[in-house]
Design a protein that fits this description.
Blueprint: H1 5-26, E1 41-49, E2 52-60, E3 65-74, E4 85-98, E5 104-117, E6 123-125, E7 129-130, H2 131-134, E8 142-156, E9 159-161, E10 168-171, E11 180-183, H3 195-203
Antiparallel strand pairs: 1-2, 1-11, 2-3, 3-6, 3-7, 4-5, 4-8, 5-6, 8-9, 8-10
């Protein structure tokens, strides 16, 4: 039996409306604006010990959260600011997981980087280092989940500042609750550190 043309048209219109309403729920809409700001932000956590300076920047994207670390040395330290670069020796304790396993364990590694003068001449400051950029244990079949602890010592022109051989020790786990903090008011669409976060980091070097 043939349906009335008016009823058929109404049924077709109703199906189009229902599909249109379902698109956002299914995640099938095409938005030119990209992810919302609420799902993509940056927060900086700055901690200092004398001239030793450490910043953790947490970058939250729509799908993941990643940390970067910025290392610094203030010109008020015993090394001053006469050298072109300062070498930063670091001893880092990572919380890692073996591929395919759920259990976590700790691995401690050492490495050295060179940092250059901060452009306001407040001392020396590095670029942002992601966790995987600081980790050298990939050959051991593990991947880093987070950094638990960082020890720092600095050298320039043949002189050392190691906090009287005790090193400058940072409890990274505690930095989210015990540090100077700011959340970016701008939102980048990649993993680079936002300009206002860099300005905040530089201001804490003074």
């Amino acid at each position: 039996m043939n349906r009335c043309p008016l009823v058929a048209s109404f049924a077709k219109l109703l199906s189009i409306i229902l599909v249109t309403l379902a698109l956002p729920t299914l995640g099938l809409t095409n938005s030119a604006s990209g992810p919302t700001n609420e799902n993509h932000s940056q927060t900086a956590y700055v901690k200092t010990q004398g001239p030793a300076f450490l910043t953790m920047v947490t970058l939250k994207t729509l799908y993941d959260t990643k940390d970067q670390f910025v290392f610094g040395y203030k010109k008020s330290g015993t090394l001053g600011d006469s050298a072109e670069q300062v070498s930063v020796w670091m001893k880092i304790t990572f919380v890692v997981r073996r591929h395919g396993e759920l259990n976590e364990m700790e691995i401690t590694t050492e490495r050295t980087i060179n940092i250059s003068r901060e452009w306001n001449r407040t001392g020396y400051l590095s670029a942002g280092y992601p966790i995987w950029g600081l980790y050298d244990g990939a050959a051991m079949g593990t991947e880093p989940k987070r950094i638990k602890r960082i020890e720092l010592a600095f050298s320039a022109n043949g002189r050392w500042d190691s906090n009287m051989n005790k090193n400058y020790v940072f409890d990274v786990d505690a930095m989210r609750n015990d540090s100077d903090q700011m959340t970016s008011t701008t939102h980048t669409w990649n993993l680079s550190i936002a300009e206002d976060v860099w300005k905040f980091i530089a201001s804490k070097m003074r």
